[in-house]
Amino acid sequence: MNSIRNPDLSVTIGKIQLKNPVMVASGTFGFGEEYDDFFDLHQLGAILSKGISLKPMMGNPPPRIFETEGGILNSIGLQNPGFQNFINNKLPYYKKIKTHLIINFFGHTQREYIDLARRFDGVPGISGLEMNISCPNVKRGGIVFGSDPKMVYKLVREVRKVTKLTLIIKLSPNVTDIALIAKSVEEGGADAVSLINTIKAMAVNIHSRKPELGNMIGGLSGPAIKPIALRMVWEVSQRVKIPVIGMGGIMKAEDAIEFILVGASAIQIGTANLINPRTGVDVINGIKKYLIQNKIESVQKLTGLFKTY
Amino acid sequence: MTLSSWLKILRIYMALQTDGIVLKNERIKPLYFLLTIYCPPIADGIKAGQFIMLKVSENFSPLLRRPFSVYKSYPSSHPEKKKRGVLFILYRIVGKGTQKMTEFKKGQKVNMIGPLGNGFSLPPLPSSTPIILIGGGIGVVSLYSLAEILGSHYLYVFIGGRTKDDLLCEEDFKKLNTLKIFIATEDGSLGYKGTVIDLFLTQKKSFKRSQFQYIYSCGPVGMLKELAKAVKSKGVVCQASFEARMGCGFGACWGCVVKTNDLNTPYQRVCKEGPVFNLKNILWE
Question: CA-CA-CA-CA torsion for B193, B198, B199, B201, nearest 10 degrees?
Answer without folding.
Answer: -150
